[in-house]
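May I ask for an example protein's residues together with how it folds?

___
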Amino acid sequence: MTVKPIRDKQPEQKLPKPDWLRVKAPVSQGYKETKMLMGVSRLNTVCEEAACPNIGECWEKKHATIMVMGDTCTRACAFCNIKTGRPEALDAQEPARVAAALKSLQLKHVVITSVDRDDLQDGGGAHIAATIRAIRAENPGTTIEVLTPDFLRKPGGLEKVVEAKPDVFNHNLETVPGLYPTVRPGARYFHSLSILKRVKELDPTIFTKSGIMVGLGEEKTEVHQVMDDMRMADVDFLTIGQYLQPTPKHHPLMKFVTPDEFRNYERMAWGKGFLMVSASPLTRSSYHAGDDFDRLRKAREAYLAKN
């Protein structure tokens, strides 16, 4: 495919947040209990670090996305609110603490994500794998989804994670290739595609998942092309959500995509053959992940029964 040149657009003025993106402030008892448990267990969550708008709803249900390997990322993506800098050394006890916290939450499905750790020889692959194994030992009935870094120039990192056999391997493309130089400058679009394809080559039983944000200045035809690229890499599950600019220093918000436009993207994605699609203004990689996993598993069973 042809990658369009770098675009340097700026919105004419600050865009007012539409009604469909307004959420209630988190005040429930379930939210407070989850917050306390994360604090006592000394665990980081992407829910807090990335200022997710769904934190109130998810934490009320005691759903949390655990972020391992610290709270400091070695990348500086223009869309992300996680701090950048020199991370601390890995905590060898973290996998056990994660497993114990999840046992307290009694989750059926858990999402484990991480910061990028370009300072580590394997990009943190062994640590993520150790976390998967610890969860399996303490929570044998819990299904595990990982949302990983891209392991760029980190040989062996991806393979270590796949060998630990998560139920879902997620790696987000985040945006269309033409916006990578400004939105995701430390990453490479076709490398990210290649690791999703590689997971299927290593273990076809693992579900693969990827997502993008819209509202960054992409064109609809570019989004459709990303869908095609994902299907060529045999990605099972696609998520599409609205980009929300964390601070004035981050990449500008170019557009609030309407619910109707999201529904059109969803219809297009189903037509391209994804087993599972989630596309809405508030969709995030881990939003309703457990329910979506159940539907994804049933979709595969139905597909296999027909073929």
About this structure: The beta strands are 44-45, 65-68, 109-114, 143-147, 168-170, 207-214, 237-242, 276-279. The mean pLDDT is 87.
